[in-house]
Design goal:
The chain has 282 residues and is of the alpha/beta class. It has nine helices and 15 strands. The two termini are 24 Å apart. Bound molecules: adenosine-5'-triphosphate, 1-O-pyrophosphono-5-O-phosphono-alpha-D-ribofuranose (PRP) and magnesium ion.
Length: 282
């Protein structure tokens, strides 16, 4: 049975459970459940603090886990990213009151408050900057106002939390993060159960980012049309009862669907439809 760590709280937990549900796995019914077995899929899910997941996985007791890239790096655990999942996207940045600092070199001798001490200490050391790091559990934006630090390093998504605290980012982003699947470094990459789990999640990612497009076009326009909708492998082309016309079917990126429909129409394609993809195995 595959043993999988899933975030039990915070920004990662809702979207992770939703993705697993879309991939056909049973999920817990209430937020207090710590562990469930999905016998049909031969999977056991452990609901753990997102920060602890890479540590459990690196111990080898759990096969894989879903966590944030920033949390993996911060933990220093012996685990590696095997699949990015496209949700909980954020950047990790330094911020301070305007005029405090312009770049990392200005942090010399200053105190930085953060919940991600591992990332920050590593980044300062790599940059050869000698600054102190204070660990706080959360709401670090307030640390400057309350005099605990001159600078913070934190997760930024929309920037609203920083703006509300009168702070501004400075310097280069320290890292970009999103939810990821992790496994123990060097674990068997060919494990068929792990491969099947990853294929299911990849299927959800494809179903979320692509739509199916169908249209009819004149045979003379087929090459131009196919150039607009090359599909993943190659589009399906079927004859129509009306001679000289064909029906074409191809997957296209959902974000580009409207533009592609306009372009197809402009070259004479008609009856252009898009439909959602509910599930997919590439
Ligand atoms: N506002 C946000 N937007 C996108 N991702 C976020 C946001 N806040 C945190 N994350 C991501 O969520 C993960 C942290 O999850 P964690 O549960 O530890 O913190 P949280 O979501 O801030 O929850 P809480 O602080 O309430 O416990 C990290 O990968 C981080 O990048
Ligand atoms: O750029 P924004 O869209 O404002 O998002 C970023 C904020 O979201 C998270 O905080 P959370 O609400 O989880 O509180 P925390 O600081 O206690 O973790 C993160 O720590 C930032 O403070
Ligand atoms: Mg938080």
């Amino acid at each position: 049975m595959l043993r999988i760590a899933v975030p039990n709280k915070g920004s990662l937990s809702g979207p992770a459970a939703e993705m697993l549900h879309e991939a056909g796995y049973q999920q817990r019914r209430e937020s207090k459940e710590l562990r469930i077995v999905d016998p049909e899929n031969e999977v056991e899910f452990f609901y753990l603090r997102p920060r602890d997941i890479a540590i459990y996985v690196s111990s080898g007791r759990l096969d894989i886990g879903i966590t944030g890239r920033d949390l993996l790096i911060d933990s220093g655990a012996d685990a590696e990213e095997i699949l990015p999942l496209g949700f909980a996207r954020s950047t990790f940045r330094f911020a301070a009151k305007p005029g405090t600092a312009n770049g990392i070199e200005d942090l010399k001798g200053k105190t930085v408050a953060t919940s991600y001490e591992g990332i920050v200490a590593g980044h300062l050391a790599d940059s050869g900057v000698d600054a102190s790091v204070v660990h706080l559990d959360g709401a670090v934006e307030t640390a400057i106002e309350l005099g605990v630090a001159e600078v913070i390093a934190d997760v930024v998504e929309t920037g609203t939390s920083l703006r509300n605290a009168g702070l501004e980012v400075f310097g280069e982003p320290i890292m970009k993060s999103e939810a990821i699947v992790v496994r123990r470094t060097g674990a068997d990459a060919e494990d068929p159960k792990v491969q099947q789990f990853l294929r299911r999640l990849q299927g959800v990612l494809v179903a979320r980012t692509y739509v199916m497009m169908d249209y009819d076009c004149r045979v003379e326009q087929l090459e131009k049309a196919v150039a607009l909708t090359p599909g993943l492998e190659s589009p399906t082309v079927s004859p129509l009862h009306n001679e000289g016309w064909v029906a074409v079917r191809a997957m296209v990126p959902a974000k580009e669907a409207q533009r592609i429909m306009d372009d197809l129409y402009a070259i004479g394609a008609r009856a252009i439809l898009t439909t959602a993809i509910h599930a997919c195995r590439l």
